[in-house]
């Protein structure tokens, strides 16, 4: 078994912290919560300190923050139905663009690998795709195929492929078709309750999802002409659930992150515990097996809402909780 | 609120007696665990959204439908809508959740559900009440929180 060592506990937010996101260089961290602020933390002489507090961008809870791949922008999704884009052109972060259009709370925001596409999703059941060019944002598509509240959007690590998770218990995959329309190319059915979050692995051919049904599922992409002989329709990939991790979590699982450096999967659970899973070395790719390598009881004193691996420092993990804290951890074997 | 009452003639139930305070309760050195009676006392006087009656008087909440697990910080409350198509079910459940959220220590995980078999949309209502993100968003809605506060405010 490995262990998760607490490096530092970051206090400052008032009330629940909903989300944490690492800067792509891994040297700073953004967090957000019900106090309507975004805090940016940086490591100074081996201590994490708050560098900036972004307030007055939103009228209600900030549900999620996301750094652009270049690290120059932060997008924030809020219950006030808007998404704010913050940039540092004037020396410090300022909100210069507000994306409006959703009818209800915006739940999630994600940048594509190139940074030229942005996606948002909302309680209004829709997923929006925005094209970014020279600080102008134009809505390229409004996709209404989920039947309920959409909880999470996340782009593929290499391609312009988007995944979304919903209160309707499904995950959907979207791509741009030959006519430049964004279409749903796959629906991933298997969870029996709300899918709260999802994360691609480093290849982008596998996806981990977590749910209110207390399970984690691993999905494998089968492209047209795959060696396993899985049939594909319309020349589109199919995604199959190849592994379900059940019996580990005792409450809803609010977030999941698949580390691109180490392959470790971390989960944030409503039972206050952070758990870490790793694929077994003798695992069959078509029927993989995963083992829990670490469970940290009372990682927080309330629900853990978010976990994210540092994109540069292997084993460094950030978490956020209803207890108002952000924590920095280090995983070791 | 609707102009017409959904359930025009609700059945009334007898209220329980006040809790008897024992010598142990008053002894500051004895650790009092939360029990179902204590949880019941926190929610029995919540007002029904459409009648000038409490949830206890309408038998919407009952002590026997409350489970408390102090060791594992769990509180489970089942409530029974007065009629199977009650459109107020979500609001009643939300009022119970908010009251317990405010009154109990933050270590408790509170589940509020409809008593099985007593409401036409119990699965949908239960799912909504269990979704803390939607509950959080609802509580930022000024109109809704006003209505909930009115339900929770105990009559003197």
Architecture of chain A, according to CATH?
Answer: 7 Propeller
CATH topology of chain B: GMP Synthetase, Chain A, domain 3
Identify the strand order in the major beta sheet of chain A: 1-28-27-26
Number of domains of chain A: 1
Q: Could you give a short account of the major beta sheet of chain B?
A: 3 strands, mixed
Work out the radius of gyration of chain A.
19 Å
Q: Can you tell me the number of structural domains of chain B?
A: 1
Low-confidence stretches of chain A: none
Q: For the CA atoms, what is the radius of gyration of chain B?
A: 16 Å
Helical content class of chain A: under 10%
- List unreliable stretches of 5+ residues of chain B: none
Name the average pLDDT of chain B: 89
How many individual helices of chain B? 6
Number of strands of chain B: 3
* Structure classification of chain A: mainly beta
CATH fold group of chain A: Methylamine Dehydrogenase, Chain H
Most extensive chain-chain interface? A-B, 24 and 12 residues
Question: How would a crystallographer describe the biggest sheet of chain A?
Answer: 4 strands, antiparallel
Keywords (chain B): Chromosome partition
Organism (chain B): Neodiprion lecontei
Family (chain B): Belongs to the MIP18 family.
Domain MIP18 family-like (chain B): 38-114
């Amino acid at each position: 078994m490995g262990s998760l060592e607490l490096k530092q506990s970051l206090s400052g937010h008032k009330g629940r912290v909903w989300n944490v996101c690492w800067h792509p260089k891994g040297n700073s961290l953004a967090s957000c919560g019900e106090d309507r602020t975004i805090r940016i933390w940086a490591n100074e002489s081996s201590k994490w300190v708050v560098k900036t507090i972004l307030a007055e961008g939103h009228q209600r809870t900030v549900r999620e923050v996301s750094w652009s791949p270049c690290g120059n922008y932060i997008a924030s999704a809020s219950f006030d139905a808007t998404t704010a884009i913050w940039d540092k052109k004037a020396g410090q972060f300022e909100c210069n663009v507000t994306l409006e259009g959703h009818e209800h709370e915006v739940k999630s925001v994600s940048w594509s690998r190139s940074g030229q596409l942005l996606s948002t999703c909302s309680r209004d059941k829709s997923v929006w795709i925005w094209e970014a060019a020279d600080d102008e944002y134009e809505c390229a598509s409004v996709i209404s195929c989920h039947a309920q509240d959409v909880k999470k959007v996340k782009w593929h690590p290499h391609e312009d492929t988007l995944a979304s998770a919903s209160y309707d218990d499904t995950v959907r995959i979207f791509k741009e078709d030959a006519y430049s329309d964004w279409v749903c190319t796959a629906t991933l059915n298997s969870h029996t309750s709300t899918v709260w979050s999802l994360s691609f692995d480093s290849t982008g051919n596998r996806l981990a999802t977590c749910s209110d049904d207390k399970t984690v599922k691993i999905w494998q992409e089968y492209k047209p002409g795959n060696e396993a002989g899985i049939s594909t329709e319309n020349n589109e990939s199919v995604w199959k659930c190849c592994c379900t991790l059940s019996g580990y979590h005792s409450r809803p699982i609010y977030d999941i992150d698949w580390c691109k450096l180490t392959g470790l999967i971390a989960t944030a659970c409503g039972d206050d515990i952070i758990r870490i899973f790793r694929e077994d070395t003798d695992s069959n790719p078509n029927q993989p097996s995963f083992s829990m390598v670490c469970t940290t009881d009372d990682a927080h004193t309330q629900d853990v809402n978010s976990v994210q691996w540092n994109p540069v420092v292997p084993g460094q993990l950030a978490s956020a909780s209803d207890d108002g804290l952000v924590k920095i951890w280090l995983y070791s074997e | 609120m609707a102009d017409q009452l959904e359930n025009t003639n609700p059945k009334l139930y007898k209220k329980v007696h006040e809790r008897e305070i024992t010598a142990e309760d008053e002894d500051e050195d004895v650790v009092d665990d939360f029990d179902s009676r204590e949880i019941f006392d926190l929610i029995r006087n919540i007002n029904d959204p459409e009648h000038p009656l409490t949830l206890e008087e309408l038998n919407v909440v009952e002590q026997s439908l409350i489970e408390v697990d102090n060791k594992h910080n769990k509180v489970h409350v089942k409530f029974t809508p007065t009629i199977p198509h009650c459109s107020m079910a979500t609001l009643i459940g939300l009022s119970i959740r908010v009251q317990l959220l405010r009154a109990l220590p933050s270590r408790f995980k509170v589940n509020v559900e409809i008593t099985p078999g007593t409401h036409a949309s119990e699965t949908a209502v239960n799912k909504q009440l269990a979704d803390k993100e939607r509950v959080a968003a609802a509580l930022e809605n000024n109109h809704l929180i006003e209505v909930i506060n009115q339900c929770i405010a105990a009559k003197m």
